[in-house]
TrEMBL record:
<dbReference type="GO" id="GO:0005634">
    <property type="term" value="C:nucleus"/>
</dbReference>
<dbReference type="GO" id="GO:0005694">
    <property type="term" value="C:chromosome"/>
</dbReference>
<dbReference type="InterPro" id="IPR003593">
    <property type="entry name" value="AAA+_ATPase"/>
</dbReference>
<keyword id="KW-0547">Nucleotide-binding</keyword>
<dbReference type="InterPro" id="IPR041679">
    <property type="entry name" value="DNA2/NAM7-like_C"/>
</dbReference>
<keyword id="KW-0067">ATP-binding</keyword>
<feature type="region of interest" description="Disordered">
    <location>
        <begin position="420"/>
        <end position="458"/>
    </location>
</feature>
<dbReference type="InterPro" id="IPR027417">
    <property type="entry name" value="P-loop_NTPase"/>
</dbReference>
<dbReference type="Pfam" id="PF13086">
    <property type="entry name" value="AAA_11"/>
</dbReference>
<keyword id="KW-0378">Hydrolase</keyword>
<dbReference type="GO" id="GO:0003723">
    <property type="term" value="F:RNA binding"/>
</dbReference>
<dbReference type="Pfam" id="PF21138">
    <property type="entry name" value="SMUBP-2_HCS1_1B"/>
</dbReference>
<feature type="domain" description="AAA+ ATPase">
    <location>
        <begin position="221"/>
        <end position="485"/>
    </location>
</feature>
<dbReference type="GO" id="GO:0016787">
    <property type="term" value="F:hydrolase activity"/>
</dbReference>
<keyword id="KW-0539">Nucleus</keyword>
<dbReference type="InterPro" id="IPR050534">
    <property type="entry name" value="Coronavir_polyprotein_1ab"/>
</dbReference>
<dbReference type="GO" id="GO:0005737">
    <property type="term" value="C:cytoplasm"/>
</dbReference>
Length: 698
């Protein structure tokens, strides 16, 4: 594959994706009133400035509190949809427009706003990291004493990092300076032969044989190794062994993943004695990880002492500038105050840079998201091995951010589960128009006739993991074949149809059922691993939002497909489980459609807040003792939409540990040939099939 052509193609695809992201955001912000934006998690209203302080890099952190006159004490009445804005999101802080504000007024208020990155959102309010160049604008914004609102903005930063990586890759290729690893990753050179690791002694006695073989393969591969981890097969446990073995050999390791949770799960499993630093926003990290986060270490470690005194001075100055009323600095005194802050920040950054260099430099393992792998704190750091977890959920351009100077790469993932979400693909095809060939094509594992002529991917959803499998075939990977999650019957169909019937259920889970939990009664609903509510017959029709009438604006937040009666059936089975003693936190209700999520949430959340309700896509990587799967589609045409994407259905049916409850129209689902039809036939043969009328659940 031509590397320059690859980088150019990726840049075009990234530009289109960014444009789609920004266009969608701008269209929403320009057409919907603030309350509607807030209701849908795109804005937080009625905020008041509270304080400012100094964060990593000397940047100002602005704390905004919920207005207690609107939300009650401690934000008790803040709508849960406000959680649509999360740590790490890019937002604009603006003076809040009145509900009757004209478009001109909104535009003028926007000009006075500033952008920042959300550090945290909690029951008190929101904290935002600001840019240095925004100080005067922030000062003016706060001086007016008006209510503020925070609006979600397009996340250009992550795209810019990917674009920078792709441009650099293209420049390296043009100059003929490709590394050995780059040549292997693009099919120019074959991977070197796997070497035997002499004297290998496993540190984790609990590894099964497939995990041990994956560790041997990862350690013995000089260039690149893929670890294929189907659902529940102990991929993280395998990774920890690889990391411990590498550091035991004196190697430095950079560990990355596409999400904070994927990285934090590894941090939590690392031995406390292993020197490790986690780079990233503390607010986005799990609480148990904070002790190893770089920002916390720059405050608590021995090296931090040279920084803390300057930080204290900066915060004191900022406190003076935030004062209101008679104590407020004005005129030249105010200008001098900001000048002092800027000078102190220069000193702060010099001292902090030394502290950060010392902390990161002595760490044997550094962990970050893929975007964090390009952080300035890592620019001069050298690593012997780069490890990327959940690589099949990451855009390839993301993976190249930490890969530029790498000499060895270990990837872990499962190309048979969902790839990363790509807006341009979602927007360019309707839910109903997917061809069967697109739905039922299994990602290739056999190499093409000529790897040198293998064309660059034409879509961002083609991952580095799947691309390497397509070039080199299964010889470049090792499969983890023992799963520790699912009852054998839940596992069987995915294993046979996707994993070449190679999966094995560990003895500890092979026959476990809900009734085996000490607090659960033995009932018809807790004594079987598979239940299929077949809703065929017309009582459970799907509901699709009608298109806008001519001349009317389309509801940009409208959902597509839902099934109200199916939601009632979900609630019915939920009651049966709870009556049998199953705990709310052991139950998840998932569905492919976000409209159905809204229905289920409105129906169930107030009475059963601990029951998790969400989309299939959002539940990837998760598990519950029992999962209720609402498939929604029920129509005379036999249209099943993106249910036909076997990777989505694979995720859906592999989340449950002891019981999977499927609710769907068997007749509709069986109309199209392929994976779904075969799976329905399997359920009809192996599950307890129920036909429940509306009169039984209302």
């Amino acid at each position: 594959m031509d590397i320059k052509h690859f980088s150019t193609t990726q840049l075009d695809l990234l530009a289109a994706e960014l444009a789609a992201d920004l266009t969608a955001t701008q269209e929403l912000l320009s057409t919907l009133p603030p309350p509607t934006l807030a209701k849908n998690g795109l804005a937080i209203l009625n905020l008041l400035p509270s304080s400012t302080r100094t964060g990593l890099g000397g940047k100002t952190i602005l704390d905004l509190d919920y207005d207690s006159a609107v939300y009650g004490p401690k934000g008790a009445e803040v709508p849960t949809s406000s959680s649509g804005i999360r740590s790490g999101d890019i937002v604009r802080i603006e003076q809040q427009p009145a509900g009757s504000a004209t478009k001109w007024v909104k535009t003028e208020l926007k000009k006075g706003g500033v952008e920042g990155v959300v550090q945290r959102v909690n029951e008190k309010g929101i904290s935002i990291v600001l840019g240095e160049s925004d100080e005067e604008a922030v000062d003016k914004l706060l001086a007016e004493g008006k209510k503020l609102w925070v609006v979600k903005a397009g996340n250009e930063v992550v795209f810019r990092k990917m674009e920078l990586a792709m441009r650099r890759l293209g420049e390296i290729a043009e100059a003929g300076q490709e590394s050995r690893l780059m040549r292997v990753l693009f099919g120019h050179d074959a991977p070197s032969a796997v070497q035997e690791v002499e004297g290998l002694q496993f540190l984790d006695d609990g590894l099964n044989e497939s995990q041990r073989e994956a560790v041997r393969f990862a350690l013995g591969s000089p260039d690149v190794a893929l670890i294929h981890g189907p659902p529940g097969t102990g991929k993280t446990q395998t990774f920890i062994e690889v990391i411990r073995q590498l550091t035991g050999q004196g190697k430095r390791v950079l560990v990355c993943g596409p999400s904070n949770i994927s990285v934090d799960n590894i941090v939590l499993r690392l031995p406390p004695s292993l020197p490790a630093v986690r780079i990233g926003h503390p607010a986005r990290l799990l609480p148990n990880v904070l002790a190893r986060s770089l920002e916390v270490l720059t405050r608590t470690s021995e090296e931090a002492q040279i920084v803390n005194d300057v930080r204290k001075e900066v915060d004191e100055k900022l406190g003076q500038l935030m004062m209101k009323g008679k104590g407020r600095l004005k005129g030249s005194a105010r200008k001098e105050g900001w000048r002092d802050v800027r000078e102190l920040r220069k000193e702060f950054r010099v001292r902090e840079a030394k502290c950060v260099t010392d902390l990161v430099g002595r760490a044997k393992v550094v962990l970050a998201t893929l975007h964090g792998g390009g952080a300035r704190q890592l620019r001069d750091q050298k690593f012997d091995v780069v490890i990327i977890d959940e690589a099949s959920q990451a855009l390839e351009a993301q993976c190249w951010i930490p890969l530029m100077n790498a000499s060895k790469l270990i990837l872990a993932g499962d190309h048979l589960q969902l790839p990363p979400t790509v807006k341009t693909e979602t927007n360019s095809r309707s839910d109903k128009s997917k061809s069967k060939s697109a739905k039922d094509t299994k990602p290739p594992e056999a190499p093409p006739a000529s790897t040198s002529k293998y064309p660059p991917p034409t879509t961002l959803s083609t991952t580095l993991f799947s691309r390497l499998l397509a070039i080199y075939g299964p010889s470049i990977k090792r499969l983890l074949n023992t799963q520790y999650r699912m009852h054998t019957q839940i596992m069987t169909y995915p294993s046979v149809s996707l994993y070449n019937n190679e999966l094995i259920a560990a003895p500890s889970v092979a026959t476990h059922l809900l009734k085996d939990l000490p607090h659960v009664e033995d009932t018809d609903d807790t004594s079987v691993p598979l239940i299929f509510y077949d809703t065929q017959g017309g009582d459970y029709p799907e509901s699709t939002d009608a298109p806008a009438a001519p001349g009317k604006k389309v509801n940009l937040l409208a959902e597509s497909t839902s099934n109200p009666n199916e939601a009632l059936l979900c609630a019915h089975h939920l009651r049966l489980l709870l009556d049998a003693g199953v705990k709310e936190e052991e139950i998840a209700i998932i569905t492919p459609y976000s409209a159905q999520v809204s229905l289920l949430t409105n129906l169930i959340r107030s009475q059963h807040p601990a029951v998790e309700i969400g989309t299939v896509d959002g539940f990837q990587g998760r598990e519950k003792e029992v999962v209720i799967l609402s498939l929604v589609r029920s129509n005379d045409k036999g249209e099943i939409g993106f249910l036909g994407e076997k990777r989505r259905l694979n995720v859906a049916v592999t989340r449950a540990r002891r019981c999977l409850v499927v609710i769907g129209d068997g007749e509709t689902l069986s109309r199209e040939k392929g994976w779904v039809k075969d799976w329905v036939a399997f359920m009809e043969e192996n599950a307890e099939v129920r036909f429940t009328g509306l009169d039984e659940i209302q």
